[in-house]
Amino acid sequence: MPVLTYLEAIRLAMLEEMEKDERVFILGEDVGIYGGAFRVTAGFLEKFGEGRVIDTPVSETAIVGAAIGASLMGMRPIAEMQFIDFIGCCFNQLVNYAAKSRFRWGGGVPIVVRGPCGGGVHGGPFHSQNPEAFFMNVPGLKIVAPGTAADAKGLMTAAIRDPDPVIYLEHKFLYRRIKEDVPEGELVVPIGKARLARWGKDLSIVTYAAMLHVALEAAEAAAKEGIEVEVLDLRTLLPLDEEAILTTAAKTGKVIVLHEATRTGGPGGEIAALISERAFEYLDAPIVRMAPPDTPVPYSPPLEEYFLPNAEKVGKAIRALHEY
Amino acid sequence: MSAPVLTPRPPAGQLSREQLLELYRFMKLNRMVEEKLTNLYRQGKVVGGLYRSLGQEACSVGSAYALERGDIFTPMIRNLGAIFVRGGRPRDVFAQYMAKASGPTRGRDLNVHFGWLSEDGSMPSVISMLGDMIPILTGAVIAERMKGKKTVALNWIGDGGTSTGAFHEGFNLACVQKAPLVLIVENNKYAYSTPTSKQTANTRFVDRAAAYGCFGEQVDGNDVLAVYEATRRAIERARAGRGPTLIEADTMRMRGHAEHDDMKYVPTAMLEQWAARDPIPRYEKRLIAAHVATQEELDQVVARIDAALQDDLAAAEASSMPDPESGLDGVYADRPVAPPTPLIVVEWEARKDRR
Questions:
Q1: Which of A180, A241, B161, B283 can bridge B157 by disulfide, Cβ–Cβ 3.0-4.6 Å?
Q2: What is the mean pLDDT of residues B106-124?
Q3: Do B339 and A107 touch (CB under 8 A)?
């Protein structure tokens, strides 16, 4: 199996789908001659030409709007946000057109809107956000957030082939830090299915994306103290894999929901509510939400390190919950 | 899939008698459907608001009539006439306004918010947020170009809608891409209660064409043949790969924003002045003066429309409201709802022999 970085896995999935399916094309800012701000589409222009790798004006509304229009005409566009923070600029196109189109009049919008999310790289308030919670309240959208290279590839393939609009959140901290074996050829990770990333019996951490690695590191440390932590990697945030969440909650009876989106109104609240509605009798302790405080993502390294969850903070929460 | 055969539309001066009368019929149909809807509204049978295009019928009908088979269009709230030109049925519009299950959205959305996808000419459904359809139609025709087709898209926007960011972003992208898009700015003088002078410091909307680097034309929006001809030229340029045209149509909204709005903010003298320019009587006089039709013949056109609309209205009123739980379907592809019939097919079948 070839060893790929998380970024190479995303790139390869798009490349393979574009080779297989002429309906797939890319549009965004600096995706062509420059190959994308993070080089995710490096070499695409040379391979596929200007017709299928479209450098656009600095216009997120036009990028997503054009993707929607093309998808209605049978294409499978991939729209890049240079940083996912800029998805706020095209919120209306996504929420009011893409998400509601099929419901309103039967016009399906099979688009992928992808871009780098997340902190840990000192990008400050506008190059570090995790916008999933903004969109989890929007029926009609799907949201995926891979944490491994294999999932990055498999979820991208699934997102491109999906008949509905998918927001694909790629964590920039993982781009070149994650390097692993990725099966060659066809790899499709179904949207809406979580993955058990680590088996445990004492408590569960439900997480995704970069926080998956924080959870695994903390679980490794806890194992040395005799605490067996189970880690569930959600992979998809909309729709949530309710069965997988309830299964792990019922099994261990103690749950930490860990994410990088800020706390209030974040995905953790929804997951905690799901567990308390449907697995209350199995719980041995209150559900714990671990998330950054309700502030914008700060820039300076000491500020950002304080802001983000890490293995040490999660370790403390594991011990406290274990002793509850 | 076979590409539709494109037959260039004739210049306004070469329209046949039949075509000239068809323009008349569509403008009358537009107005008469809205009059019937106004009655329904007053009887409390319309769910929500009613948006009239009184005085603007020429803008919708003249422009849509210049489209070819396969072309894409998205009407705005005051472009009901364009939907009829492209094959939409009055009974669907009545049902839609009454939130019936038989309406094209099965009660999921309101007024002219419906659409269809068809090789013969798609109508992507409009949404309420103004300007949003400009980037969407731009993407649609870029996609058509990628497939090697020469499809053109037509969209309308009001003077108010030109102030949105989506207008700028979408139209700028269209011009950069030389996309085959024709945009009609219907300058109807008011956006709800806001006059154009509070919308923009330069109320000559056609000036924007130079700013975006595309073609620009100004047209008397109350002259159906002038609107047809300006749109036809713009479509011809777009299809030849010469990029977008912005057409400013000078017209006037003769009713309030919606029927609840008494529009006291519009000076009476202004309404009187524009009433004299009403596009329908103007066109009637022209047809009679040019011996295209007699008054009696035009009256017969109206009588036939009225009879048909009575049937449409009765059918729509008699149809049922949606099953409450049916609203859970169609959010995602895995719980599908049958899409609306592409109405244009019926229209083109009826008209194909004449093209």
A1: B161
A2: 93
A3: yes
What's residue B341's pLDDT?
A: 60
Full residue range of the structural domain in which residue B41 is found: 12-354
Q: Is residue A156 predicted with pLDDT exceeding 80?
A: yes
- Ranges B83-87, B227-231, B239-243, B346-350: which has the least confidence: B346-350
Distance from CA of A122 to the nearest CA of B (A): 30
- Distance from the first to the final alpha carbon of chain B: 21
Residue B354 has pLDDT above 50, yes or no: no
> Beta-carbon neighbour count of residue A186 at 10 Å?
9
For residue A170, which of A5, A3, A2, A1 has the smallest C-alpha distance? A5
Single residue among A122, A154, A181 that ends a domain in this structure? A181
Q: Which residues pair with A142 in a beta bridge?
A: A166
Q: Please report, for chain B, how many H helices and E strands are present, in that order.
A: 12, 7
pLDDT band at B343 (very low <50, low <70, confident <90, very high): low
Q: Does a cis peptide bond (omega within 30 degrees of 0) precede residue A239?
A: yes
Cα-to-chain-centroid distance, residue B115: 12
Separation of alpha carbons B97 and B109, rounded Å: 9
The answer to whether B96 and B103 are in contact (CB under 8 A) is yes
On whether both A158 and A202 belong to a single domain, the answer is: no
By the CB < 8 Å criterion, does B166 face chain A? Answer: yes
- Helix, strand, or coil (residue B224): helix
Q: Which residues contact residue B134 at a Cβ distance below 8 angstroms, ignoring those fewer than 6 apart?
A: A65, B155, B157, B166, B167, B169, B170, B171, B174, B181, B183
**Do A53 and A131 fall within a single domain?**
yes
pLDDT at B337: 83
Task: Catalytic residue, from B31, B86, B106, B253: name it.
Answer: B253
